[in-house]
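Tokens in:
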């Protein structure tokens, strides 16, 4: 994989070798620890070190900054493969790569040179700090404020549900640099915020699923950050910068949903052949066959939508409709397939000895994260009309 990081030319052979390496890693390192680390809510430090060696923290960062420069369509396949065994670890490198993509896309060259090489190796791991207690999908409602003071910004406010905030070293922080301007989004900016005095990780949140990964509350208390860390060097661009990053984020969520759907279906197919009722495996009962047939169809449809959205992203064209379709359908497929698998497992599905209960707990988050599915349908409809005006 090191040879691939040295060139922009990514061939089918490169893709096959990379995905084979990911599959081997998943079986060797991810599957054996998933149950223990999920149930005990333990952060997988050793797994993160292996992610560094694999180059996952630089997966979509350009080779000129030390990354692998993978196209989104290949990156999405990696995410699906990992999530089909254990979804949570994909959040560690996904949130990080959204931050890196925003810096590469909207940052100054000095910011790219300063941060991206360290991010590509995993030396500096980051995330996206958008959500607040009273501002989720409605990002314009954020209250975190950054006031200019000489050559610094002084930040005060709170964020919530921030991945990589406990064990990472930086976040891309959405703030209000102007609280009076209208419309509100024109007063929003992004700051590249490394940990320091006043950057307080106040609480690791307890969750139903998506465990072992640090999702924390943050408090910024007179936190000072250099004005050189204003993303792109221009105030008032933060809202657009945040939305641009969400396209890759939604493709990732879609890939995770497809992975959950595929993993749950795989477990169900195996169990349906092992479990017998009325003298035969339950896979021979028509009711179970109908469930498996529907599950398998949704898995393949989800993967195709993810691939379509990722290919659109790779061309550089606007793809909020494609990403929204993929995120909506694939996340719902994850919920559907995990629920159906629970039914196929029957009473055994409630035992923590079987992995299927983890898929069920993890699935619903995909319908909420990176913009709710209700919002995705609105985005799809608006773009559909915009692209087909009469």
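Residues out:
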């Amino acid at each position: 994989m090191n040879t691939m990081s040295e060139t922009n030319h990514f061939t089918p052979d490169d893709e096959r070798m990379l995905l084979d390496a990911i599959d081997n890693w998943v079986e060797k390192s991810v599957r054996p620890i998933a149950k223990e680390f999920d149930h005990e809510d333990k952060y997988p430090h050793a797994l993160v070190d292996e992610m560094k060696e694999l180059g996952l923290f630089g997966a979509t960062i350009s080779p000129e900054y030390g990354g692998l420069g993978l196209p989104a369509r290949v990156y999405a396949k990696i995410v699906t493969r990992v999530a089909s065994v254990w979804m949570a670890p994909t959040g560690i490198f996904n949130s990080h790569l959204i931050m890196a993509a925003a810096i590469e896309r909207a940052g100054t060259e000095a910011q790219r040179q300063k941060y991206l090489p360290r991010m590509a190796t995993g030396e500096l791991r980051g995330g996206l700090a958008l959500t607040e207690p009273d501002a989720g999908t409605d990002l314009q409602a954020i209250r975190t404020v950054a006031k200019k003071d000489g050559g610094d910004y002084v930040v005060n406010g709170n964020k919530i549900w921030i991945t990589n905030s406990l064990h990472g070293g930086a976040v891309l922080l959405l703030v209000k640099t102007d609280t009076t301007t209208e419309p509100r989004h024109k007063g929003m900016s992004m700051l590249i915020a490394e940990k320091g005095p006043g950057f307080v990780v106040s609480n690791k949140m307890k969750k139903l699923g998506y465990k072992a990964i640090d999702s924390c509350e943050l408090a910024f208390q007179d936190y000072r950050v250099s004005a050189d860390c204003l993303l792109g060097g221009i105030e008032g661009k933060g809202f657009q910068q945040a939305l641009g990053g969400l396209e890759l984020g939604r493709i990732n969520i879609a890939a995770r949903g497809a992975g959950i759907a595929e993993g749950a279906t795989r477990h169900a197919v195996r169990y349906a052949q092992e479990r017998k009722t009325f003298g035969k495996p339950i896979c021979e009962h028509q009711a179970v066959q109908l469930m498996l047939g529907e599950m398998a169809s949704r898995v393949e449809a989800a993967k195709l939508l993810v691939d379509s959205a990722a290919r659109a992203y790779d061309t550089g064209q606007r793809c909020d409709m494609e990403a929204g379709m993929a995120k909506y359908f694939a996340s719902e497929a994850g919920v559907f397939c995990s629920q159906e698998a629970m039914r196929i497992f029957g009473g055994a599905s409630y035992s923590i000895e079987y992995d299927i209960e983890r898929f069920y707990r993890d699935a619903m988050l995909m319908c909420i994260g990176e913009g709710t599915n209700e919002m995705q349908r609105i985005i799809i409809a608006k773009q559909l009309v915009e692209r087909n005006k009469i």
